[in-house]
Amino acid sequence: NIHLCNFCLLSICPCTVTIICLLPYRERVQHDFDVDGGLDLDIFDINEEAGLNLIEGDIVLDETQTRNSIIGDEYRWPTTVPYYMEDDLEINAKGVILKAFEQYRLKTCIDFKPWSGEENYISIFKGSGCFSSVGNRRVGKQRLSIGTNCDRIATIEHEFLHALGFWHEQSRSDRDDYVQIMWDRISEVICFCKLSLHIRNYICTILYYIYIFCLKMTCFMNWRSGYFMHFGTGTASPGDTAVLESRLVYPKRGYQCLQFFYYNSAGPGDTLKIHVREYDEDNPSGKLRFIQTIDGSPQDLWQLHHVTLDVRKKFRVVFEGTKVGPGPAAGGLSLDDINLSETTCPEFVWRVKNFSHVMDSTPNNTPVFSPPFTSKEGYTFQMALYPNGRDGYPGELSAYAHLVAREGDAGQTWPCPWKQITMMLMDQHPHIQKRMSNQRSVTTDPNMKAADSDLFFWDDPRKVGAEVTEPDGSRYFRGPGAGTPVYLTHLRAKSRDFIKGGDAIFLGSTQDKTTLALASSLSVLGAMLLITVVSVLCIKNKYKKRVANTGIALENANAN
Ligand SMILES: [Zn+2]
């Protein structure tokens, strides 16, 4: 698939003789793709550009609606909110919406389910901008727009908060108890009016209900933070074990991700094993099931580990450290920041050491690349990080996802179809619910063409990419990158717990979105069939009408 041309063209015209020498070259995609046109657009920028005139930038109010009308049970959704994704949504947006729902599940106990005929539901569509109504308006199909460039997880979570009944923080009735607004410094008149006490009560009520609901359900599992377990192997004898068991956990989904930091200063043969203790009628005191041994040779750092679990019964997680051989006199196995959540684990962990220094000392427009990682479907990806931004974006982190292929790779379909790649900078707060990790996703659209080229952007990197030789001599082809120059500002990257112990941790994961893409094309097909059926009916009725002069007037058929 490599197009090599090595020949000379000699063209003679009456006045000049031109020799054009074409050196060996490969057809390749020259430019990376900026998912948002290289702009850091927030909700308000997007909506302003779209010419929308909404309350506080992104809130839809109907004419009869006043701010006070939000109070009341009638504006509440059930704790499981039905949603429907309309066909015009971008595939990447659909994937990010599902990720946003996961964050709600992790942090709030509010759940979402696909609409199956419930009276009221949220219908997500691709409008011109990102906006929502506030609360359940009881209009049946209540639309929420996720337009172009709104496909960021934070934006989607924001719009859904409105749909659930929340106003902007700056409109809280107790706002002025905490901040002083310098009204004379505001050039444009934007109404960030405070809301009445009633609304404040309403929000408190929602929070109260969420809280009570959470108390009733085990929606999230975490059993410690602020302490760590240490199994000192230095003084132990070979064969000695230490065990740490979690409290009881009641799974709802059948898959879990166990995440923890592990410091291994023990002997090279000493092991840490993960088990689950499952309880059922036959095993009222639990039955131990081995999951995996953590391999991680002794290192002078806290290593982040993820273990995928698949438990459906009531269970506990069991950590078991074993002293195997004679090791050093000091040292041991330590565990910290253990979090168990009902999510899928990331597939890839990339630690960048001394990250503040890397940000400060890397020249602008200079990438560092993660090691390539291969997803479960057999595609290999690589993340390019520009620690001091791409050209024109100093002081930012820029992040791009690239496809990678090695000579001899086989079995993949090209161009790569509908894989959503998520690049997450992990907030390393000990408690998973208090993290606000930074993430952006891109989806490989097999039909997307590269700019100024006939090549497919996500085609085989051996065809559209460039060959790379690593310092260790390994060679592979790297395709063009898709991502954003405005992934995160340095200021923000140095806040929260994005950097801990000096290091930043990037998590990568890929998910197949073929079903979402297929669902879209199937509904289009369905709509086409419906139109065909309706047309047939129309013709039939027209015909009937003409013959009998009576007929049934067809209502406007809604292909949706
Ligand atoms: Zn808003």
From TrEMBL:
GO cellular component, one term: membrane
Signal peptide start-end: 1-18
Documented EC number(s): 3.4.24.-
Cofactor note: Binds 1 zinc ion per subunit.
Pfam families: Astacin, MAM, MATH_2
Domain Peptidase M12A intervals: 68-186
Residue stretches making up the MATH domain: 345-468
An example Gene Ontology biological process: proteolysis
Annotated TM spans: 516-539
Claim: Nuclease is one of the keywords in the record: no
Alphabetized SMART domains for the sequence: MAM, ZnMc
Cofactor(s) for this UniProt protein: Zn(2+)
MF-aspect GO terms: metalloendopeptidase activity; zinc ion binding
Binding residue positions for Zn(2+): H158, H162, H168
Residues covered by the MAM domain: 148-347
Active site: E159
Record's keyword terms, sorted: Hydrolase, Membrane, Metal-binding, Metalloprotease, Protease, Signal, Transmembrane, Transmembrane helix, Zinc
InterPro entries according to UniProt: ConA-like_dom_sf, MAM_dom, MATH/TRAF_dom, MetalloPept_cat_dom_sf, Peptidase_M12A, Peptidase_Metallo, TRAF-like
Official protein name in the record: Metalloendopeptidase
Organism: Fundulus heteroclitus (Killifish)
